[in-house]
Structure formats: C-alpha cells, structure tokens
Amino acid sequence: MATANKNLSNLELVPLSEPSKIKIGVVVSEWNETITNNLLQGAVSALRENKIVEKNIIVHRVPGTFELPLGAQYLLENNLVHGVITIGCVIQGETKHFDFVCQGATQGIVQVGLRYNKPVSFCVLTDENEQQSIDRSGGKYGNKGIECAISCLKMIQLKEEIKKPSTNIGF
Hints:
The chain is built from 5 helices and 6 strands; from the N terminus they run βαβαβαβαββα. By secondary structure, the protein is of the alpha/beta class. The chain has a single domain, classed as Lumazine/riboflavin synthase (Rossmann fold). The strands form 2 sheets. A 4-stranded parallel sheet has the order 2-1-3-4, with helices on both faces. Strands 5-6 form a two-stranded antiparallel ribbon. It is globular, with a radius of gyration of 16 Å.
C-alpha cells in the first residue's frame, strides 16, 4: 500500500494573488456522514489557513456520492465559485453497487470540471472498509479533505499564472 505509515496531508500555503476574493464551493455527501464531516472539516481548515474568507466558502449537501457531480455543476453553471471540492465516501459492500457509484461519480466530477473550465477537486474515499475511511479522514493517513482543498487552490493559482501576460514562445 502506497500510504502505509504515511500521513499524506501536509498543509501548504498556496500563493494566491488575492485569496480574499476567491470563492470555493464544497459539495458534501450526506452518506457516511461521520467520514464526510471529517473531510469537510479538513478542507475548510485548509481553506481558512490559505486566507479564504468564511463567507466565500459555500457548502452544500447532497444525498450521496453519486449526486456530487450535479451539485458541483449547479455551483459552476451559476458562476458562483472559482472551484469546487466534492466530498464523498463509498465503502465496498457485497454488491456491484460500489463499482457503479464510484465510476459514475468519478466520470461525472471530471466532466463537470472540464465543461466549466474550473477545478473540481475529487475528495471521494473509495475504501474497502470503514476503518480505511477513518484513517483517511483525520486518522493515521491524514485528512484527504486538506489535500483536496490544497489541490483546488493550486489549480486556481495555475489558471491565474497562465492568464498573466507572458512572453510569446514564438512558434
């Protein structure tokens, strides 16, 4: 396992030009709520540490992980945010339902980000059991919410950098 004995959630400060103007949407699954609330806490704390003001962190809940892409799309299609963090948790059960939910959510989240040309960060735990989810939502492997908040901010920063006037490379 790549994460064995590693806390992967190092909090980074992302050098955004005007963090007080950045608005971040967070769409959180109600399913496996204990886990998703921990991920939400991690994401919000990382955003605050990066000077994103409280009123610019827009949190909405959806019934389950499968609904995350549509929740993200609602925020983006109304141009309410610069990026979205999607938070969910799917734990392997006895049926193929796990596979369908994971695949649908993953593909949907990717499509929404590409359609709206804004970062949509994938904070969806897809674990074999509840303990693995606990370990990744504030346990021994850190908090994936922190990692995904930083990822979202880094992608916003990248977009800012690319938009700045630069020297033409002259093809």
